[in-house]
Specification:
α2 crosses α3. β5 and β6 form a beta hairpin. The chain is α+β, with helices and mostly antiparallel strands. The chain is globular and about 45 Å long.
């Protein structure tokens, strides 16, 4: 019996060491702490090798609506460590994956002349547009949620979900207006 308990905790611990665990932020925190919030379409993607010999994925976002971004720029570039080259695959740990043509709402922070998603596995919302609706669902990447009550047992988080894109953007603007006054 004791052997089985030890095996159980070893398996749980081993699993946790290979997953990315985060403490999730709510919409108010993301809105208040982001330097940029945009509604856009994923454009060109490319992988470059940085000065540390790591693959870096650069993803262009064509801005549809600069929800919280005072600029005349029409495109911003997302910076993610990791990617796939002809020689190797370096996973984007905890990061979201962007697909060309995909509509997104992005909460981001400035990083030199580029931007990074608000947090590890956070800050990206996928927009799905149908005939009569435009739903928004949080894309949490491949992260596990930290639970302070059971620190050894993490869970897959439940993404935020909104049924109407325009109401979602209106809520973000209201939060920003309230926080920045």
């Amino acid at each position: 019996m004791a052997k089985n308990i030890i095996k159980f905790f070893f398996i749980i611990y081993a699993y946790q060491t290979y997953s990315t665990t985060v403490k999730l932020s709510n919409l108010v925190d993301m809105s208040g702490n982001s330097e940029v919030i945009v509604h856009g379409i994923v454009g060109e993607q490319r992988v470059e090798i940085d000065k540390y010999s790591r693959p870096i994925t650069l993803t262009e976002i064509e801005i549809i609506d600069p929800i919280y971004y005072n600029t005349s720029k029409k495109i911003i570039t997302i910076y993610q460590v990791g990617g796939k080259t002809s020689d190797s695959v370096f996973p984007i740990i905890g990061g979201q994956h962007y697909e060309v043509g995909q509509q997104v709402i992005l909460f981001a922070l400035k990083f030199n002349d580029k931007f990074v998603s608000y947090g590890l596995g956070q800050g990206k919302f996928n927009v799905s547009v149908n005939e009569n609706t435009s739903a928004v669902v949080e894309d949490l990447g491949n992260v596990e949620e930290f639970n302070s009550k059971t620190p050894f047992l993490h869970k897959s988080p439940s993404p935020l979900h909104y049924e109407d894109l325009e109401l979602f953007k209106k809520e973000i603007r209201s939060i920003i207006k309230y926080l920045k006054r």
